[in-house]
Amino acid sequence: MHGPAEKLRPERILRRVAELTRFHRIQGSKGLVDAVEYLRDELSNIGLSPKTHYEKYDGKSWYLTLRSPIAWDLLEGEVRFNEKTLSSEETPLVVMAHSPPGEGEAEIVPILNDSDWERAHGKVVLVGKNFRKAYGKANEIGAVAFVSYREGTDDAVPYIGLFLTEEDLKWAKIPAFAVPESWAKKMISDYLSGKKPRLSFRAVTEIKSSEKLPILYTEIGEPPFILLTAHICHPRPGANDNASGSAMLVELAEVLSKVYESDFRFGFAFLWIPEYYGSQAFIGRKGEPNDYYSAINLDMVGGSEDRSGSTIMLVRTPLSRFSIVSGVLEYFLKRHNLSSKKSLSGSEIPAVKFRAYPYEMGSDHDVFNFFGIPSVMPITWPDRFYHSNMDTPEKLSMESLAIIGRSVLSSVIFLAGEDEGKLRRFARGYSLKYLGELAMERETEMAEKLVMLGLSRDSKFTGMDIGYEFEKTPWLRWKLRGRIGEDIIKNKAPERLEEFEKLTEEGKALIDLHELVMLGELLPKNEAYKALSEEYGEIEKSTLEVLIGLLEEAEIVETV
Length: 560
Description:
The structure is a single chain. By secondary structure, this protein is α/β, with parallel strands linked by helices. The chain contains 16 helices and 21 strands. The protein has helices at residues 10-20, 30-45, 131-141, 181-192, 239-259, 277-286, 324-336, 365-370, 398-417, 420-439, 445-462, 486-492, 497-503, 507-520, 525-536, 541-553, and strands at 51-57, 62-63, 66-67, 71-81, 84-87, 102-110, 124-127, 145-148, 176-178, 198-208, 211-220, 225-231, 267-273, 292-297, 311-315, 338-342, 348-350, 354-357, 375-381, 476-478, 557-559. The strands form five sheets. Strands 1-11-13-12-14-19-15-18 form an eight-stranded mixed beta sheet, sandwiched between helices. A seven-stranded mixed beta sheet has the order 5-4-10-6-7-8-9.
């Protein structure tokens, strides 16, 4: 069953990564459309029949809970400081994504504390955090340009996007740029020493009425499918994030098209989308959730341990969507992660660092989980070149690409082709392992119920006859399903936006909130909170209660 994994060729993945890094794949840009056309041609060349569906970027269309950013292209841009020049020919990241056009020269005012805003009128403001809020304030106060940097990036130019909407264009007028942290430190040093640093800037951008939002899809076999996904967006070069996942998805499609057997219980579906906007457009308008058994989302799958400082991570399904797909992929990630080195007794040892984690948010696996499709994500993290112009192909690891690609391939073939008896045996063992790990830390009363519920769903798709359903007594109903964030709160409950942002400032609160809503679809209120604490340990119940009340007011959820 594991032989086909060796058909996956990491060098082919790397070649396609190099091709994809030629495109500036910003959401709302022509470069993103061109990249998808390249992938479509690659799929056609290997004998598949891909279909491209187009929604649109226009700054006003809604895809469930997300409002489309504007259609935008960068033509050219440049900043000059202290005899140094950084241009879009060197890196397009010098102009922040979705920036309005503009040019000029002015004194730089770093915003080191709130009082610095008093000196920002007619100046170039320099900001190192809370970029979108700061950009809004810079426009309001009359700055002539906005410059951002990210701490910890040294000489790299960071990727920072504004994701402006049509409504934002009423106030968003000044051009926005990004510079290396090393430049920003010199600007701040000069400013504090009284030298009055200056910046010359130029951004030539085109804000269009609309641009295609491309969704690329192809299938092998018949439903139900295992869905394999990757987001195609992000700036040039964007090698690990996420040319690596998009290129790996092509390789998986090529290999699976050759090894697929008609008696497989699952077909395979492949989906390339712009992150979040594309997955919500797909599942909200074109996808049929009942056609999909599970989803595996490939995001940043090529990070290197030595150059990027990465670990191979597996983000499991949330407890509310428990499935053996987490355990199967975890097993094969360990199996394919073996080096030629041996332990003292001759046993094989791992080639690179690996760890499986409870559900975390941050990519398109979220959306499919929200819609009841158990979804996991292999990822290499952290990556010291993340969201910067230094995320280039030579930083990638052929070893990571091989381990993750072959593990995903082995997993989907195992799920599709293994007999019910072996699946049942694995499901029993993985469930005990999962619950045993939780039980070392806390009670598992609710977790046991949800594991059995997940196994019963697995059984319906696989025929392995394990698990059981229970009578659901939901506390919550999701009225508007999708990622809950600034867009939808601003639209539905604008007077509570600042409160929402403050309460979710720590990322864990947002993860807990989404999982609580998913649990609330299955369980009474007290049991939902108990299940959440069994899954994650300590939770901020009072904060979550306020947030649930906010979502009710915004008509995103309702109590049953």
